[in-house]
Specification:
The active site is at 21 (proton donor), 159 (nucleophile). By secondary structure, the protein is an alpha/beta fold. It has helices spanning 5-12, 23-28, 33-47, 68-75, 89-94, 103-113, 141-146, 164-173, 205-217, 238-255, 262-273, 277-302, and strands at residues 2-3, 17-20, 51-58, 61-64, 82-84, 99-101, 117-119, 126-127, 152-155, 162-163, 178-181, 200-202, 224-227. The chain has twelve helices and 13 strands.
């Protein structure tokens, strides 16, 4: 694993560092918007007084803290960038592949590098069955990795395309605390309110840092989820969202899309069928989560 010198220096000095994933860039946003967002996220982290560490695999080597050329490579249109969950890190390394890390892989590599705060858009979860009459065993590896990786993930809840109730049950089973930031309801990525509550709430980055420190002092190795609703002015219209989701589910059934291809396919449908509205929402919620994560990382750093 290669850790950028700036990241290594910040960690050695007890400074604030925020991990950022690369699947969002390679598979969640189209070029050139993805490169613009990549730069905006890193700028937001720096503006808050922290160091950004975008994570990906380059030529079979995990890199924690991509440089500008590596970000260009990840965001290049048509690039052969494999989507990597934690299970894929070994094979991709052995075969010398370029890969974009999911929440699961990013959290694992961030923790290995000594980074405890990670910002993303939305967690994966328990997927709805492609065929309603079938039971699905498609559960995102994000949930299992969070159960054993003590990293704070700042996100806008879970993607609204998954079964949110089942996902929250899995997080509870794995003793992963779910905390709402400035809200008593669990957000659903494009939407501020999923219809499910959160067991805990904080209203400031300092409160969030206090909760993280107390959680880490408690028995166990689970991470924590801080659910930050998409800014109200950027929330996707609910009627439009529900229509796009129904269309997307039909698209999956018609094309037989399964497994790790489900999320990219649904997000692409949302972006295209909404005329770019969901793309703007996606970019804005990730930016808001990144700013918040950086503020929490700074608060944690001040506590040593």
């Amino acid at each position: 694993m290669i850790v950028a010198e700036e990241v290594t220096g910040a960690l050695a000095d007890g400074g604030a560092v925020v991990a950022l994933e690369s699947t969002l860039l390679a598979h969640g946003l189209p070029a050139p918007r993805n490169r613009e967002v990549a730069g905006a996220l890193e700028d937001a982290v720096r503006a808050a007084g922290a160091v950004p560490a975008t994570i990906a695999m380059m030529d079979g080597v995990p890199v924690v803290g991509l440089n500008a050329d590596q970000l260009d490579r990840v965001c290049e249109a048509g690039a052969d960038i494999v989507k990597l969950s934690r299970r894929d890190l070994g094979p991709a390394a052995a075969l010398g592949r370029d890969g974009a890390t999911t929440v699961a892989a990013t959290a694992a590599l961030a923790h290995a590098a000594g980074i405890g705060v990670f910002a993303t858009g939305g967690l994966g979860g328990v997927h709805r069955p492609v065929h309603p009459e079938h039971v699905t065993w498609d559960v995102s590896a994000d949930l299992g990795v969070l159960a054993e990786t003590p990293v704070l993930v700042v996100c806008s809840g879970v993607k609204s395309i998954v079964d949110i109730g089942a996902t929250l049950e899995v997080l509870e089973t794995h003793s992963v605390p779910v905390i709402g930031f400035g809200t008593d309801v669990f957000p659903a990525f494009y939407l501020r309110d999923s219809g499910f509550g959160v067991p805990w709430r904080v209203d400031s980055p300092v409160e969030a840092a206090d909760v993280v420190l107390a959680h880490r002092a408690a028995p166990g190795t689970a991470g924590a989820v801080l659910a930050n609703p998409v800014p109200a002015e950027h929330e996707l219209d609910r009627e439009l969202h529900d229509r796009l989701l129904a269309e997307g589910q039909e698209l999956l059934r018609r094309k037989g899309i399964q497994g790790k291809d489900v999320t990219p396919a649904l997000l692409e449908h949302f972006h295209e069928a909404s005329g770019g509205a969901s793309l703007d929402t996606n970019a804005e919620l990730v930016l808001a989560n990144t700013r918040l994560a950086a503020e929490i990382a700074v608060a944690l750093a001040t506590r040593g």
